[in-house]
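Attaching the record inline, Q. Sequence:
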Amino acid sequence: MNMKNTFKKMVAFLGITGISIVSLAMPPKPKNPKPKPMIVQPERKKLIKY
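Structure, as predicted:
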């Protein structure tokens, strides 16, 4: 149970940090809003599969 809880916390933490990084990166660079979300999503899917 502890491993599952820590794994969920890590996934949630990475998801929150990924969203925050994308939100912070979008205002200074409005020309590239699409590539960064596409890079973040596959990483989250891979982490969930493991």
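Residues 2-49 form one domain. The mean pLDDT is 65.

More tomorrow.
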